[in-house]
């Protein structure tokens, strides 16, 4: 019995941090190039996150990010910071930033969605989800 | 032979509790159960409309369902014998405490047996949970109304 | 308090019955019958427990080819609340019945009282013994069966078994009870219900010492001194106590424990067996057969019992223990 | 990245169970006492606002142990107290954690009809 216990323990010690290549995706309904650059810039500057997906549709900006797992404990702080930055830059849009995996998962699905109508509905649904308590 | 003379004789002969091995086994099994829970959390997030904030409930329910199966087929007591706290601390342990009491007292009838005894082991967890939550919330409310803390 | 029996009542027949798990026992071949279903095909554990007692008593009566009408007294006890299994078994047997409780020492205390009744002449034939059923007792004293609590290495496994003996007038071909010691209640302040061996060892020490000194015997006068269910740890403690008191190591070889040996070296049973059925089944099968076969001439059987209840434990009481002993000889 | 997330869940969940085991072994306490202590600890940590970051960090590793039960009770009470004041402390109690207890009761009830305790050793 003791051998099994030791056997279990070893592999977990070896798992060091894997490389952190950053993936940023931006989907823009109006092909407004400069908006895309600004968003990419903001997300690049912030090195707490390892991946982010932004979606512009109608007057909505949805930014779903994923913080590095070992920084997840300050997830809410990261969200607040990014929301502040994006609201300064895109005061005309209403901005929603979330580090929730659901948002990130759905945003990645939405970004290669062609029909703009469905993207707008998707973003609407996600906004509803975030407000929902339990 | 006086009491303390016997006591230290008993101490010498009784095998010492294996602190390290117990702790290691509890850590491993507890970790594995929580990882399974983590996987179930991802499952619910991806396939159902739950955010990380709201995924707690379905995950806990699924874990308790799994603990019902393990308890019913007599596997949980073997897991518990190996893991100790590793199988008791996770919510499957809470489920096992409720379900084992319910199964056990079925022969005393559903109302008096199952009904009367279902919280024999887990009742204290609910009692202390609710009581401590009440006092913690009360203290926070008082601190906020004094202005020391905000919500 | 040591009693010497002048008329030396004899054990004319014996019966031991065990549950499915007890197939793993070292003494398996000595048991009269082993059943597949731990509830004896009854609905509840307690009913199974009562049926088990009945089956053991039937075996005893069949061996002595007598009917229950011929038996004067039925002395039995077990660990379930208010001894309901013994009561229900007595209802079926329809023999005048005295319920006894000295926890796992009931197997010997019942024989002591049967021998007293026989010596008094009030009883020609009396059935005495004890039984225990794992599920019925674990759920009452500790946790529900399926609960995943971790038992420490000192915990013992309650045996599903019953052992009964027919006590009658002296008969040289059968083992006879020459003396007995009724133990005092000894409490060393142990409170851990998972370390019964440690709590019961002092009681066994006290009873065995009292018996040997009053009968001014030494360990060598016996072929075997077997305690009830101290378990592996409890037996070590008892041997250490005697060693401290000057008993030589080769004498200590004579000291054995039914609980410690019951499941042999199977680790799943931790510190061995316990329960009223453990000492009863081993005494009234293995020991009696060894005596009849002449391998043992004189044995001292000292059953140990922990007199706790789930209530006394929750109220923070310590565990008082007792041990009763009978000296059996074979001419 | 996902692997590290799972690793964090494994380590944090394992540590909480380790603490539980130490309470049992060193403190010589029964499982019942240990779970009660952990639930109270979860409630206190939650009151101090320390438990939510732990859940964010470890995910399943913090929601599965019983400490999360104390946490959700407290969060329910605090959230309701924020909205309705004194009464909220009581009304909000099971707002968030309802599934834990109801699932245990329902599955316990169902199990009572399906299963029978079997006294096997191994």
SSE order of chain C: EEEHEHEHEHEEEHEHHEHEHEHE
What is the general shape of chain C? globular
Q: Supply the number of helical segments of chain D.
A: 7
Report how far apart the termini of chain C are: 25 Å
What does the largest sheet of chain C look like?
6 strands, mixed
What structural category do the secondary elements of chain D indicate? Answer: mainly alpha
CATH class of the largest domain in chain C: Alpha Beta
Uncertain stretches of 5 or more adjacent residues of chain D: none
State the total count of DSSP E strands of chain C.
14
Helix percent band of chain C: 25-40%
Summarize the structure.
The complex is a heterotetramer of chains A (134), B (151), C (331) and D (122). By secondary structure, chain A is an alpha/beta fold.
Descriptive keywords:
A: 134 residues; alpha/beta; four-stranded mixed sheet; C: 331 residues; Peroxisomal Thiolase, Chain A, domain 1; six-stranded mixed sheet; 35% helix; globular
Question: What can you see in these coordinates?
Answer:
- The complex is a heterotetramer of chains A (134), B (151), C (331) and D (122).
- With 151 residues, chain B is an all-alpha fold.
- Helices cover 77% and strands 0% of the residues of chain B.
- The two termini of chain C are 25 Å apart.
- Chain C has 331 residues and is α/β, with parallel strands linked by helices.
- Chain C is globular, with a radius of gyration of 18 Å.
- Chain D is mostly helical.
- Chain D has helices at 2-26, 31-47, 51-58, 60-63, 67-84, 86-91, 98-114.
- Chains in contact: A-B, A-D, B-C, B-D, C-D.
- At the B-D interface, helix 2, helix 3, helix 5, helix 6 and helix 8 of B face helix 1, helix 2, helix 4, helix 5 and helix 6 of D.
Per-chain topology:
The complex is a heterotetramer of chains A (134), B (151), C (331) and D (122).
Chain B: H1 3-13, H2 19-47, H3 56-72, H4 76-83, H5 85-88, H6 91-104, H7 109-117, H8 123-146
Helix pairs in contact in B: 2-3, 3-6, 6-7
Chain C: E1 2-4, E2 10-18, E3 33-34, H1 45-63, E4 73-77, H2 84-93, E5 97-99, H3 106-120, E6 125-132, H4 134-141, E7 157-158, E8 161-168, E9 176-181, H5 196-214, E10 224-227, H6 231-244, H7 249-252, E11 255-257, H8 258-262, E12 273-274, H9 276-292, E13 298-306, H10 310-314, E14 321-329
Parallel strand pairs in C: 2-3, 4-5, 4-6, 7-12, 10-11, 10-13
Antiparallel strand pairs in C: 1-9, 2-8, 6-8, 9-14, 13-14
Helix pairs in contact in C: 1-2, 5-6
Chain D: H1 2-26, H2 31-47, H3 51-58, H4 60-63, H5 67-84, H6 86-91, H7 98-114
Helix pairs in contact in D: 1-2, 2-5
